[in-house]
Design brief:
alpha+beta
Length: 151
Amino acid sequence: MDRRRFLAGAAVATMVTTVLPCGPASATPEAMAAAIAKVVGNAPVREGRVSLDLPPLVENGNTVPLVVSVESPMTEADYIKAIHVFNEKNPQPDVFSVRLGPRNGRAVVGTRIKLGDSQKIVAIAETSGGQFWSASADVIVTLAACLEEAT
């Protein structure tokens, strides 16, 4: 195969897109509560120590910036063991879980997520001592993820 045919094939491959089916949101506030219960069990979840930073109004639900930070000394004796993020209206209530340790230095996680509708987001931090701390935020999405037409 010569270079021109290879490049022509690569150009066609990049123009072809795969459309994945995206059904309606199937998670509910009850499903989110059940997903949280799987993580925390019967332990109490206290508000505080967790900061959830995401915009209250999102124009496009395909890329929503999210930062979770937790107040913690991050020492061998006292550190954040995990950060869990949940939502109430996406197809699945579990957004992500991150495992941390004292070597992380800071308990901060940043990413971008998809939101299929306006909804509540909940972040829960699990300490090395078995305590759970949380924060939540409501997000209004004007153009939901998976509903934007391809051009």
